[in-house]
Each structure stands twice: as structure tokens, then as C-alpha cells.
Amino acid sequence: MSDSTSPRSDPYTVREGGAVEPPSTWRARFRYLGPSIVISGSIVGSGEIILTSGLGAAAGFVMLWWVLLSCWIKSLIQAELSRYILVSGDTYVRAMNRLPGKIPLGRGLISFPVVIALIAIVPGVMGLGGIIGGAGQALTLLVPEVSSVWAAGLIAVVTIALLVTGSYKVLENAMLGLVMIFTAATLVCAFLMQNTQYAVTRADLFSGLTFSFPPEYLVAAIAVYGYTGVNASETSAYQYWCVEKGYPNFIGRSDAPGWEARARGWIKVLQTDVWVTLALLTCATLPFYILGAGVLRARGKVPDGLETISMLSEMFTETLGPWSLWLFGIGAFCILFSTMLSAVGGAARFIPDYIMELGYLDRQNLTARRNWIRGYCLFIPIVAFVIYMTIPNPRLLVTIGALTLAMLLPIQSGAVLWFQKNRMDPRIRPGRWIRLAIWGIFLFELGMVWFVVRYGVFG
What we know:
This protein is mainly alpha-helical. It has helices at 26-30, 35-43, 46-59, 64-72, 74-88, 92-96, 112-142, 148-163, 168-192, 202-207, 218-227, 232-245, 247-251, 259-296, 308-312, 314-320, 324-357, 366-390, 394-422, 432-454, and strands at 102-105, 108-111. The chain contains 20 helices and two strands. Strands 1-2 form a two-stranded antiparallel sheet. Strand 1 (102-105) and strand 2 (108-111) form a beta hairpin.
């Protein structure tokens, strides 16, 4: 059998003899982490540096509770959707296409949530245009002689060069270095801010925990919820990184001896990976909000347009001094470039799945699947660059992408509830309190979408 059809060369096939006993200690579990590092490159990115700090600059500390909510509650959906993917053998898109509500499309019937996700690709790529533009503006801070447009073009070329190799390990190692750089830089700046005139007081922090929600910040707040923490696209991509890491294959087939014990053990590894993600994104998100609320708001600056990144740099220069422009420029570039890498690399994994579910690609044809992944990694950075050339406003483009992803979140939380009830093996279903928490998240996100539609956020 050729490589294009061999199950042994297919990372999305649970193979005979692939089962591995799960690690039994915390230290041993950390050896198997990895997907959290890859998606941290996109989780801690444009939502934090552009949207979260922008919300802080506009609203002050009053929305701190909302930022914490945006960071934390979506990780439960990420973990529970991954639980189903790991034990079912489904890919993300194939799982979503099992949901009820089919319409004719392509060569068969496609579930309505998959159709919505396909439509959302367009505004999602507009968000990537904002990310690549922001990275270009960060590079211009470091090398003023290069315009942000030319810098964005260079970033698009480098992104293509790194991603067309299709190597999970190369991407994982690159993300680890970038995540460490920008997380450390923002944390240091937020701590040193306490020695300046912008020092945060207890009253400031307590004012952010009063659950106030000024309606004038509705659009910005929903955009932050849509892009901060684990957004809908990152939750989708995470399932593919988990599969490529080998988790489902380690569990083995459900009819094999010892399956339940292995499943529970590897689910614990998965949960550890998710909580590592949560810790990383919290440590990187809060400093940006605090810096935006403490520095930019005090200076009356709300980042926008071609000056988005240069305005944001004042969070560092006003706190640490003019020398820190380089520190911010390098950190901002790392944030946005790593976001571009992991966002495009992650989306490339589920694009072939869409084509398979539409009936235009044989699931067993691995060569065609790899070609689609490489083609997407080649094409999308160029499209994102063209979008930024046309609309050179990173904050606007990222907001469009964020609002779109916010609309997709209740689909994912609702899907988790449906999978747990209708398709998950009863032996490894989560406990009652987790299911109740998912119901609460689903209703909350459904209400948020109702606000978007009712009050015309897009209008």
C-alpha cells in the first residue's frame, strides 16, 4: 500500500498496536505536553496586545472582570471538546458535521454549524490581515526606514517559508521561544510600572471586580471575548495539534483491553496541557490590560489605524523609559508573528477536512491532504497581506475577526453538550458539575450572540 493511503502514515487514524500507557505523575505528564505551546502562539497574540490593551485604554480598570472571564471560561470548552475528539477518533470538522441540522451542499448533506464556519473563514482571514499588519508596524518600530506595508510583506514570506515544511516539531520549538519572550517582557513591564506615576492601586483593581458593564464598550468587550483566551478558531485547531501529538493513538481502540484506564489517564494529560495554556494566557493577558488601563487611558490614547503599535509602545516607554521601545518592538513582533504562524498553521489542518466533508477529497488520500495544507499555508499569508494593504488598520481588522469568532463560540459549547449526551462513551463522560458549568457557558455565550444581533454590533 502506498504512502498516500497507508493508515500507518496517517496521523488521524487510530492504529492497531499504537496504545501507550499514560504517565502516572505530574512530572511525567509534562513530558507529553506540546499542543498548548503551539496554540499559545495564537492565544497570546493580537487579542491581547491590540484588543485587550485597547479596551483598557478606553474603559480603564472597570472591565477587568470581563477580561478574566474571557481568559478562563472558554478553556473548559477546549478541554471537554478535546475529551470527545481523543476518545471518538473523529477530527474536529468531522465531529461538527455529525451535529443535527443538515442542508444540501457539495456532494452531500452538511450540518448547519459547518456551513456557518465556512462562511466565517472570510472575516477570519480579515483578522489575519490585522495581525500581519500589526507585526509589520512592530517591525517598523525597530527599523523605521522600512514601511509597515513592506514589513508585512516580508513577514508573509517568512511565514510561508516556515509553514510549508509542515513540521509539527519545528513549529512547536519556535512557539516555545516566542511565547517565553513576550510573556516575560509584558510581566516585567507590568511589575516595574508600580515604580512610576502610573502605579496601580488597590482601588483600581477592586473597581475592576464590581461587574460593571458600561454599554458604550459593548463592541470592544465582545471583540475581546471573541479573541482573548482560547477563541473558536484556536479551539478548533487545538484538536488537530492533539491528534498530531498522538494522544488518540495512545488511547487505542475502545474495544481493546484496558481502554477505559488509558483513556482516563491520557485525558488527565490533555487537561494538564489545557491548564498550562490557561496559565500562559492569563500571565500574558492581564499585564496588557493593566498597562492599557494604567498608562494609555491616563494619557488619553486609544490605539488605532497606522499608529496602533506606536501608541501601544507608550505602555513600555512611559513605564520603563525611551530605551524600552526596542523591548516593546521585539515583544510585539514576537506576539504577532507567532500568532500568524500558529493561526495559519492550525487553520491549515482543518481546511482539508472541510473539503472531505463536502465530498471533494478522499479521506484516505494523505498526499492530497498534505498538499491542501501546504497550499493554504502558501496562499493565506498573501491574502492577509493584501487585505492589510487595502485596509491598513490592524485594530479594525482584528475586531472584525474577533466579533465573528465570538458568534461561533456558542456553537462549540452547544456541540460539546450534544456530543456528551449522544456520542460519548458513558465510561468517560465528565461529572455532573462540569456538565452544569458547560450549560452555563453555553447560555451565556448564546445571550452574548443575542446582544450582537439585537443591538446591531455589526451595523
